[in-house]
Amino acid sequence: MRIFEAVAEALAAEQIPTIFGVMGDGNMSLWSTIVARNSAQMISARNEAGAVAMADGFFRATGDVGVATVTCGPGLTQIGTSLMAAARNRSAIVVICGEIPPGAVNKLQSMDQRRFVEACCARYVSITGSPDLARELVQAFYLARLESCPVVLNLPNDIQERVLEGDWRYLPAADFLPEQTPAACEKDIEALADALSSARRPLLIAGKGARLSGAAGEVVSLAQRVGALLGTSLQAKGMFSDEDWSLGIVGGYSCAATEELCRQADLVIGIGAEIGHYTSWGGTLFPQATVMRIDVAAPSTDIQAAAGRHVRADACTTLARVNRELEHRQVRAEGFRSALTRGTMALMPEPLPEAADGIDPRTLARALGPLMSENAMLTCGVGHFQGFVATYTRLRPGTQVEFSSQFGAVGQTLPIAIGIGAAHPGRPHLVIEGDGSLMMNMQELDTAARCRQPMVLLVWNDRGYGAEAQRLPLKGFSPAPAQWETPDFGALARAVGGDGVMLHHLDDLEDAVRRGFAAGGLFVIDARVSPTETSDSYRKLYMGQPNFAPLTA
Known about the structure:
The protein is of the alpha/beta class and 553 residues long. The chain has 3 domains: 3-175, 3-Layer(aba) Sandwich (Rossmann fold), CATH 3.40.50; 186-346, Rossmann fold, CATH 3.40.50; 361-543, Rossmann fold. The chain is built from 23 helices and 18 strands. Helix 3 (48-62) packs parallel to helix 5 and helix 9 packs across helix 13 (315-328). The chain starts with a helix and ends in a 10-residue tail after the last helix.
């Protein structure tokens, strides 16, 4: 057995079902072995950055480690942005990478790979040979799972081709992992119960961690008991859309009524939510409130914009204990759920006029929600258009949502969505991406088409970089350098084996979405939206205008 064959066995023992990658000299032996043994599905991306983003998407969709493989040198340097985005998202992924041996005569693709990896905020493990092979392999998966971070597993090209010496036995990382769900101590439970018992205007904000822990029911029960209002972070959008006392997203994408009520809150508890800069709007959104957090993640090493007590524990089990403690204390309160609050929630700002130079982006975002089924998935990119989706698209509680905004990197959304789709084959998947962002990873349209994933890709086409085109005039410049003639993205989809349409009128949206979901593969909707209409968050942040956004849970 050669070492690359032992690595293939280790991946099987780790129960890795899908591996994303781009083949090259540094990984072709391992790749071919996995294919020959049929031990995992190999998805060949068109770019290394896309492959790593796909592994990141797989983790986001499942919570299980995602795996990608790239070749050495330039294969590694391509993935820098994807590694950084995964690190910011705390994604447990392992990237298997080849390496030119230090003593090689041909050093064309050689570089200091460790320094590059660590500069991208990822951990680095290198295979040194037969004696420590099992320990080094398991260390990579152990670190990824224990610290929830990206790890690059370095396989020097010469070492992976050697014959394995001695006995070979591999135990998966799960056999060594400690209990990873910390429990709140009694002091924490009492502190939470005391704060909730005395609060007059409590607000509970659920994040993605609440969804992953299955805490939604406990959050609703607690809110009913103490009269709390319900909100979410961006990544948990829609979790409480069926609840009467839901404020929708709390933070930069809040509506006017939500902002007003957040400023009145005297207690804010983040549940699986960081309550960081964007959710607290730079620490300004809760001026009267005591802030507390419940999260399995360790507290930030930086002072938070909205500082407060951090309870490191699983959200669902912690809230169940808090609910029992409050039941024991016989706590029942109207809290924030008053007629006055209801009146504030009912306030509807004067609607902005419809755009005249393309599909109105607010109307488009509002129309998307009813077209998605209960089990649908939504993946949305980052950019100016994200504000319209966050503010106006109403999602069902069962919708699995992912805003791929970590690291603020455009161009990541399509490959992340492919990884999410690979994790949940068969589920309807609406992916929203900007035209400029899509052009950065357009080659992965081919990957999506080849994989036959049921993906409706809505291109929010404002013919340029919307964020820059909106902000350049505010600095006294023309928006023209951020605008261009755009390709026909539906035609591009057809060129790689998918299908698509160009959308000029909102009346055609429902038919296009239904046709796309029925297609069973890649279907692109090239939506020609107004390039001049400004999102509510930009009006507020950059123009100092009042918030016109209505309440959309």
